[in-house]
Amino acid sequence: MSDSILLSASDVKTMLDSGEDILVIDVRDGEEYGKEHISGAVSVPDIFYHLSTTSTDGLSETYQKFEEILSEVGLKPGQKAVLYEDGLTTRFGSSCRGWWLLNHLGHDNVAILDKGMAAWKEQGFPTDNEIVEITPSDFKVEVNNSILATMEDVLAAIEDDSVILLDNRDAREWFAEGSSPYDADGVDFSPRRGRIPTARWVEWYQLMDDSDIPTFKSADDITEILAEQGIGKDDDIIIYCFKGSRASNTFAALKMAGFTKLRNYLGSWYEWSADDSLPIEQPVAEEA
Q1: DSSP state string for 193-219
Q2: CATH 3.90.1150.10: does it fit domain 6-143?
Q3: Element (DSSP H or E) covering residue 166
Q4: Each residue of 100-159: pLDDT tens digit?
Q5: Superfamily of domain 146-272 in the CATH hierarchy
Q6: How confident is the model at residue 1 (pLDDT cuts 50, 70, 90)?
Q7: Is the pTM of this model over 0.85?
């Protein structure tokens, strides 16, 4: 996994101007991309929208889908990929999800544009709405399972004190006031509310600063926040949210802060809540 997780807008502009072989990937909606995008960027909105389970079939479908998509947009083996959204919090950490996903697919020369499109435009760097000429590639998935947790891994972790389950969802989900960030008009997106038993909670926003265009807090601040929940840098941590986007955001934050044993439960609450055989926990009255 690449050490350069975050790149500033100036970093990326300098690399592009120097002729470095970079594929800039826009994870926003196709409609927004069509109106304006970083000049030369390709569009992969499925990084945000794709839902996956961690069953054998679910993962195989995910791998096949993204092998095809990344070949279509021309990502070459070893090529630098830089992912962006509007900002690091605008799509629940979708650019971070793309960074994590590419690493999981075996493409570790990948980074996140710090502060996203907002920072790029703030610097006055070029954008347009032109159709990008793409030369398809032959992208091949070579799965890195060391950063993935499956449903079976999470189920086992409930009974294993050596593994920490970290829930980083929004407060309303943790307190079972909603099932997902996508609930609307009183209708739950997921079939069950609650949390995975034994999980500890650090809302993902806690690891972001309060600047106009948010970025991650310092390594010391992040370490202190996790320490308040009894979580240290050498602990074995599985992070979950609803579908692995916010979990990827926290994964990146912890990775940069020096945490060493991190896994993302890609299926997250989307998968867990749909299986009635899996245990869930409700907040106690004092919490509510």
Answers
A1: -SB-TT-EE--GGGGB--SSS--BPPH
A2: no
A3: strand 163-167
A4: 999 999 999 999 999 999 999 999 999 999 999 999 999 999 999 999 999 999 999 999
A5: Rhodanese-like domain (3.40.250.10)
A6: very low
A7: yes
